[in-house]
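We were asked to recover a plausible sequence for a given structure. The inputs and outputs are reproduced exactly as logged, with field labels preserved.

PROBLEM: sequence recovery
POSITIONS: 44
GIVEN STRUCTURE:
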């Protein structure tokens, strides 16, 4: 049985994390603003 060669990764896990974490924070902020907006509008 021959070993299959694992392809080289374009980005390391650390580089991917540095790209993804600002997007995650942005999504959390957008969701929290949306929830706050719903509460403000519903109280009118």
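RECOVERED SEQUENCE:
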């Amino acid at each position: 049985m021959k070993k299959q060669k694992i392809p080289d990764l374009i980005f390391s896990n650390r580089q991917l994390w540095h790209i993804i974490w600002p997007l995650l924070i942005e999504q959390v902020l957008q969701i929290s603003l949306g929830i706050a907006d719903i509460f403000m509008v519903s109280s009118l």
